[in-house]
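Structural prep section.
Before we set up the soaks we want a predicted structure of the protein with TNX in place, mainly to decide which crystallisation condition to try first. Input record follows.
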Amino acid sequence: MKRQIRTLAFFTLIIVCGFSCNTATPGDLSKNSIIPRPVSVTAAAESFRLTGKTIIYVQPGQEDSKAVAQFLADRLNPATGMNLQVKETMNDPGRGTIFIVMNEENPSLGLEGYDMKISNKQIRILANKPAGLFYAVQTLLQILPAKIESGTVEEGPWLIPGGTIRDYPDYAYRGMMLDVARHFFNSDEVKTLIDLMARYKLNQLHLHLADDQGWRIEIKSWPNLTVHGGSTQVGGGPGGFYTQEEYASIVKYAQNRFIAIIPEIDMPGHTNAALASYADLNCSGKSTPLYTGTDVGFSTLCTSKEITYQFISDVFRELAGLTPGSYIHIGGDESHVTKMEDYIPFINRVQEIVEMQGKKTMGWDDIAAATLKPGTLTQHWARIENAKKAIAQGARLILSPASKAYLDMKYNSTTTLGLKWAGYIEVDTAYTWNPETLIPGVSRKDILGIEAALWSETVTNLDEIEFMVFPRLPGYAEIGWTPSNLRSWEEYKVRLADHGKRFEALGINFYRSAKVKW
Ligand code: TNX
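Run finished without errors. Recording the tokens verbatim:
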């Protein structure tokens, strides 16, 4: 009897597995833990086995495809111990290959979408643009076991469940902000963050480069901004700044991961670092002392002096030269000591200066008090009236509601890092909001996307950045990418739990929220 059962089990296994079964079960693609959740997934009862003989193919002459293919190989090689090769071919290379195809023939996939078909013979990736190929690669990495993220060789087999995925983002702008002014983070730390963002298909990194406590980007025509203005930070530590070369290397690193860097120079308030560095920028003609506290709203550029606008032109000219993307962020928030009759013409003029550099303006929602130029983007953080004023002028919004999307808010009352002025933001609170219904009167067409913001008054190093960012960031990424009808906390939290293993493999210092069964 026992023997009969065993024989039966053996034959059942053969029938169920067909020819694709290996020593490990291949899994079911429809039960994946991909974040952000793709638009559509269908599973097939087969799987692709990645081996040392697998070859990644792109079509001839497509340098962008080749770069994405090489990115994939570089990600697969360390944990698999393989040395995967990228080659070119015109025609379908057939069995045992990953075939990356880029053509413009898939209108529904847009600029960032992709299509992926996984069979036991081949993985075929299709997109209109390199960004779509790159996002397909991120998805592919997520359907491999978490140990693929290990930096040292792990045991296979490396099975990829079969089926198809068709995927594209809901919003064009999916961002994160990092405040490098209150505390400085060096270019390696920023690059680490960029790598993590790319895994979740985020495409904008907004760097808050100047505030009362520090000026962090070298401006060759105004060198004291960094020499003096960059020399400290909150708490009185040594601060720091990016040379233009370092900054350019961040921009390039991000670009290779399809992330645009948006530089912000906050003004007319939040400018003490500049006011301390150049006496001329003050109405009094005297420079201020450096500031290492955390108050806001006490500083202002002198809006009535012509040299202020010369200064802004010089800064934006140098910054525009370092910015391949479309936007320069002018801040504009909490200018409590600038009179409204000075603030409005100031913001109007600064938008013109940005335009003269061939860029578009982005600003915090406070700038809606001014006359917004066509194409100016406003970032909603606090006041609903400002969001409404902005859209009444035809401007589009980026949503960063402080009570939902501020990564510097504590998770709960026991979180030691962070602030709580906008409330506690647990992992479910961060996830369960819908851009389209957040602000009454603001609808889909008014919204370009969302951005989660990490202010750094209390955050001092990469470990602390990781703790505040993870695990909330994947949730924001999903809000930006996945249509709202496919999002639910109950279902999402199971996928997120699975990502805990990836965070561990990557050595990320993440908050183990009790709301998730890690
Ligand atoms: C408000 S949000 C600010 C920042 C602070 C942040 C702290 C915004 C436009 N201004 O200056 O760092 O709160 O959460």
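Observations: Residues 467 and 511 are 6 Å apart (CA to CA).
Flagged for discussion at group meeting.
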